[in-house]
Design a protein that fits this description.
Two copies of one chain form a homodimer. The first copy, chain A, is an alpha/beta fold and about 425 residues long. Chain A folds into two domains: about 120 residues, Roll (Urease, subunit C, domain 1); about 290 residues, TIM Barrel (Alpha-Beta Barrel). Helices cover about 40% and strands about 25% of the residues of chain A. In chain A, the strands form three sheets. In chain A, strands 1, 2, 3, 4, 5, 14, 15, 16 and 17 form a nine-stranded mixed beta sheet that branches. In chain A, strands 6-7-8-9 form a four-stranded parallel beta sheet. A four-stranded parallel beta sheet of chain A has the order 10-11-12-13. In chain A, a hairpin with a 2-residue loop joins β16 and β17. The longest helix of chain A is centred in the first third of the chain and has 17 residues.
Chain lengths: ~425, ~425
């Protein structure tokens, strides 16, 4: 059955970044069938029966946002600790709370974070955590699209005793979701301070066997780079390059501390970097050199990081931070313009996941991952430039309707896939039990 | 008649920053009569008739936010130009569009901006513009509290041919609103690049005659400081100090480029500074040294600046930027903690306006400037620390109800003082007429 969205302003994010006024999007099942002027699209379906018509007058219809780096289950620790020196924040507060997590915590934390994402316009995300089978269960309940990264460390975590156990989980999940329509699996070695070079090499090989992405945290902090220089005589990027681990199927999070040689390496290998400006600012980690990475040929995506270091999963807020941090830090108001940042949160995110032919823009043949924003509001009036308003004025609460793979998961701010209030009660229960 | 807000979490922002769970606030007319546990407050009014009961279970009740620096009418130019070098942005785009403004533009732009403020939890603001009588008309329609600054430059503007004309307007307005319950008037010399030292001296004298605040932009850009050093051999702060213009009735916007001597001067004179992090980042102006100013004894408030350089008036977004910019720029995640930033947006803003005995906290005897936020939402779950959630997770759309001076101006997100949709239509009309 077909669904028609009509009379809206369609921000396609196609190759020409076309914006269609009085526009319509028609999709059938999971696939977009037609876009264009409402009259023209309506003429294509004359006499045919529609499942639903979504009126979008005064609204902006755009691709769902892609959150390219998060740790979803950590939403359960939102606001637990802030404004502390890094070591105190991590070791005394976050790590200690996280170590009490059970499978149920991971499931419910993911459900909570996923709800927040639906309500703020994210339709696809990249996770990086443990018990990703539990995250997958939450994702399935919510109907989101995701790439779930099985975290690997050479340390004991609450989920795994050691890295071989994590590899086993990866193999199981990669097999289970091999042909899934919404979930893909990736392998996610943690970082060089916790994960050996040997484990990285094994991870790349294992990811390759399943044609999966390999994710890792890279050059997030100066301490990490110093550690690598001391231990290996090289920067993190140089180590990975030497081991031939970097390629178009590599997604690196952060990239704050990169020298010119590193940037050249990342560009040459066509890697993707998930920029996480809020997390980097909140933890005072550093600033990713956006313009230089882009110039070098790196695909730049955008991520919120986990709720412990943000503390929000709202990608609209993240876009504003991305645009403003570059201007402020590098002293140039022309840097990181709104269209560029919007690209990071949509089509570039898709590209980072190897999904650029499926999502990231509204085009016939692509999957219907679409969000609809109410622009008929004071804080979005007047409209000169839609990209500017999306980056500098909008927030997640402006999203009325979210569609993932052709399924309406939220309509007029009512989540349709799950009982929202029930989840909030379950969260309160599990945290009480544990306190 | 009395209004009771009950069963909420009351974030008082009183001297002890008390948070009352299962709390209530009772106000009669414009004045708060009692706060405390709901049971206790209810026992005080047994048998008495109430005008209204506002149920606040699952909600946070807090003081309305104070936006300490904006140019409200410029909301009409929201998104007109972004991501440009400063000179191109200002001279080619903004200044040229603004020069076509009429009184009607200023009125409608203020109405639009005021609506946005009501809908995002700001109950009091400081304006700085021309035709402040028109801004006052808009403020009266909306029922907001405001300090309206009559802008003064030694240049011709769309409103005034010269600075004497602006002084005349100031005298008229200061007289007209001398005993107003919601509006105060201030005098606002623009900045040293457009306004002479003589005009500053006259302005301070005139403001003093009416016991008014004097506002100005100070050390916003390096260019401004360089200009002053070249022309006067001193920094802007040093010039004002030498002329004995600085005191507790001085509100300075920005303060990005201050040396140690400047900071000492500002502290010694007990001035207030309105920090505008988003504007400073968007225009790459610089970064205000928050911790050093605070240590020196300066009262730090928070402002959004105008919609051209933000492009939002949402003070919740502004708080997050304030907290994160300091951590990132100065490399210390413990800087600008959430309680400190919340203080800037409430009680410090009140103090900057000389209103600390009237607003900025919820205490018996103070005016009822109160907002109520819906905390029963995924992005605000779970709650460990309310201040943290307000700064790092909330946004203006979480505000359900806004009360200014005892009057409910918005309830359950419905603006009660004006026809919101009609204003949006009027905005579209005036911009079409002009295009």
């Amino acid at each position: 059955m077909m669904i028609l969205i009509k009379n809206g302003t369609i921000l396609t994010q196609d190759k020409n970044r076309r914006v269609i006024k009085d526009g319509a999007v028609l999709f059938e099942g999971e696939t977009i069938k037609a876009i264009g002027q409402t009259k023209k699209v309506e003429s294509l379906i004359k006499g045919k029966k529609l499942e639903k018509i979504i009126e979008a007058k005064g609204k902006v219809v755009m691709p769902g946002l892609v959150n390219a780096h998060t740790h979803l289950a950590m939403t359960l620790l939102r606001g637990l600790a802030d404004d502390l020196p890094l070591e105190e924040w991590w070791f005394k507060k976050i790590f200690s709370a996280e170590s009490k997590f059970t499978r149920r915590h991971v499931f419910l934390g993911s459900l909570l974070g996923g709800l927040e994402m639906i309500k703020s316009g994210t339709t696809c995300f990249v996770d990086f955590y443990y018990f990703e089978d539990e995250v997958a269960s939450a994702v399935k309940e919510l109907g989101l699209r995701a790439n779930l990264g099985v975290g690997i460390l050479d340390l004991e975590t609450f989920a795994f005793k050691n890295s071989p156990e994590s590899f086993v989980q990866f193999f199981e999940l990669a097999e289970r979701f091999r042909n899934d329509n919404l979930i893909r699996i990736s392998l996610a070695p943690h970082m060089f301070q916790t994960t050996s070079r040997e484990t990285y090499k094994k991870a790349k090989k294992a990811a390759g066997r399943f044609n999966c992405i390999m994710q890792t945290h890279l050059a997030e902090t100066k301490a990490e780079v110093d550690f690598c220089r001391k231990k290996y005589g090289k920067t993190p990027a140089q180590i990975l390059d030497k081991e031939k681990i970097l390629d178009g199927k590599t997604l690196l999070a952060h990239g704050c501390h990169l020298d010119e040689k590193d940037i050249k390496i990342l560009g040459k290998n066509k890697v993707s970097v998930a920029h996480c400006p809020v997390s980097n600012m909140k933890l005072a980690s550093g600033v990713m050199p956006l313009a230089r990475l882009e110039k070098a040929g790196v695909c730049l995506a955008l991520g919120t990081d986990g709720s412990c270091s943000n503390n929000s999963l709202d990608m609209f807020g993240e876009m504003k931070f991305a645009a403003l941090l570059q201007k402020s830090f590098f002293g140039d108001p022309a840097l990181a313009d709104s269209q560029r940042v919007l690209d990071m949160a949509t089509i570039n995110g898709a590209r980072a996941l190897g999904l650029e032919k499926e999502i990231g823009s509204i085009e016939p043949g692509k999957k219907a991952d679409i969000i609809i924003l109410d622009f008929d509001q004071p804080h979005l009036t007047p409209v000169s430039n839609i990209a500017s308003h999306l980056v500098y004025c909008a927030n997640g609460a402006d999203v009325l309707t979210s569609i993932v793979n052709g399924r309406v998961v939220m309509e007029n701010r009512k989540v349709k896939v799950i009982d929202e209030k029930k989840v909030l009660v379950q969260i309160k229960e599990i945290l009480k039990l544990n306190s």
